[in-house]
Amino acid sequence: MMRRRTTLLASCTALALALGATACGGGGPVTAGGGDKALSGQTVTVAGVWSGSEQKNFQKVLEAFSEKTGAKTQFVSTGDNVSTVVGSKIEGGNAPDVVMVPQVGVLKQFAEKGWLKPLSKTTRQSVDANYANVWKTYGSVDGTLYGLYFKAAHKSTVWYSPDALAQAGVKPPTTYDQMLKAGHTVSDSGLAAFSVAGQDGWTLTDWFENIYLSQAGPEKYDALAAHRLKWTDVSVVRALTTLGKLFKDGQLIAGGQKEALNTDFPGSVEKVFGPEPEAGMVYEGDFVAGVAKDQFGRTIGQDANFFPFPAVDGGEAPVVSGGDAAVVLKDGKNQKAATRLLEYLATPEAAAVWAEAGGFLSPNKNLDLASYGDDVTRATAKSLVDAGDSVRFDMSDQAPAAFGGTKGAGEWKLLQDFLRDPSDPKATAAGLEAAAAKAYRG
Questions:
Q1: How far is residue 296's CA from residue 95's CA, in Å, rounded to a whole number?
Q2: Where are its TM segments located (predicted)?
Q3: What DSSP character marks residue 313?
């Protein structure tokens, strides 16, 4: 407790120096007031993938920053193709000041193109005080820290309807085989076991990554993520074979493979938590809760809950994460204000603003868990923070965008093809290796 208190005070001191805060309370989230208004008259433009409720809630963070510093803020939603949109804005002389980068591979590409400004000393000190080393690693390129992970995702959560599992008489499983067995029992009770969002290829990469991390272990996961290990490796074929057992089982997937390929992520959540449920479970990250709550009125912890993605073949239960890293562009017109924004985002205070709004997890270990609005979110946040350096970042997000982050291409497309026909894992592995080799050379 003393160590945590000392760290929190250190980060608060850094915040005071950076933002002119006059006080920093230890008993809960810090208020956003008390700034020096030193950035009055400046405007910070922030680009990111967020839209809808995510954009609305991030705007609350930006408003807290404005209240503190006097700077105005403008958020621009890029859609999924962040690298293309930001690249065109830079070429057109209209670069944003800050970009919330959702993929490690894109962050690396930005750094290699010379687009990024290293994080300030104050931000680096806050990262050292508030984050596990793994987040520093994923935010760095060639030893230089460019990215601050503000929003994280816990992608090792399986969400379920408590009523559906209770009706089937099954409890949350702890192994992958138990999960499939429980799925058959749910199916026998009248609902499909899983809703799968096959229309969105990124959800399929998440399925694969959880299985692979648990089954093959973290060393091979890291090697495959960096393409030091070929996708034709026996460990990849084994993981695809394990995933294929689910994909080809007509009892387990709502509507079968064809319907899964026509179901997007929000639709997959609706099939479990909507007004006419078709399945008992849906695998995806903690952000499932936001859709279940905001779109379908579910009470998290009562009629929507989760269990950790279960261990596969005797391995450790996986903790796969994703996240959005804030970076400062060299070509932005307001670098001073942009730097101050990142110094703010690195603090527990900034994280608390979105945590209180909901639909958010922070990798900031000094954020008071009481900031989260419900016990389930607190549990997922605690699980992510407690995992420390054993967290592994979403593998597809570490890859070049051409392989791991492009709709209708690369890993997304190949795993959709595998969902359509999971009969030949070796052929799928060969296709993945060919696509990866091309993307990494590029």
A1: 38
A2: none
A3: T
pLDDT along the chain (442 residues), means of 10: 32 38 36 63 94 91 97 92 90 96 90 97 97 95 97 97 97 96 96 97 97 97 97 98 95 96 97 97 93 92 95 96 96 95 98 93 97 92 93 92 90 98 98 97 82
In a domain, 27, yes or no: no
Looking up residue 78, the CATH number of its domain turns out to be 3.40.190.10
> Is residue 81 a part of any domain in this protein?
yes
Residue 28 belongs to some domain of the structure? no
How far is residue 103's CA from residue 400's CA, in Å, rounded to a whole number? 9
> Rounded to whole angstroms, what are the CA distances from 214 to 16, 147, 218?
42, 27, 8
Same domain, 146 and 169: no
Asked if residue 117 and residue 8 are part of one domain, the reply reads: yes
Give me the sign of the Cα torsion angle 94, 97, 102, 106: positive
3-state SS class at 305? strand
CA separation for the pair 431, 433 (Å, rounded): 5
Query: Looking at the structure, do residues 14 and 79 belong to the same domain, yes or no?
Result: yes
d(CA 169, CA 158): 18
- Strand-pairing partners, residue 48, are 77, 100
Give SS3 for 253.
Answer: strand
| Contact in structure between 239 and 212 (CB atoms under 8 Å) | yes
Instruction: Using the structure block, give the residue that is written with the tokens 């460019």.
Output: 146
Let me know whether 61 and 86 are in one domain: yes
DSSP tag of 118 = P
Residue 355 sits in the same domain as residue 406: no
Q: Which of 186, 361, 204, 208 minimizes the C-alpha distance to 279?
A: 186
Q: Look at residue 435 and give its three-state secondary structure.
A: helix
Looking at the structure, tell me whether residues 374 and 346 fall in a common domain: yes
Which helix (H) or strand (E) element contains residue 74?
A: strand 72-77
**Same domain, residue pair 289 and 377:** no
**Distance between CA atoms of 209 and 366, rounded to whole angstroms?**
28
Q: What SS3 class is residue 376?
A: helix
The total of structural domains in the chain comes to 2
Domain of 433 in residue numbering reads as 157-318+399-441
- Indicate the residue type of 101: V
Question: Residue 284 carries which DSSP code?
Answer: -
Count of residues making up the chain: 442
Q: Are residues 146 and 163 in the same domain?
A: no
Non-local (6+) Cβ contacts of 91 within 8 A are none
- Alpha carbons 19 and 22: distance in angstroms, whole number: 9
Q: Rounded to the nearest 10 degrees, how much is the dihedral formed by the CA atoms of 274, 275, 280, 286?
A: 20
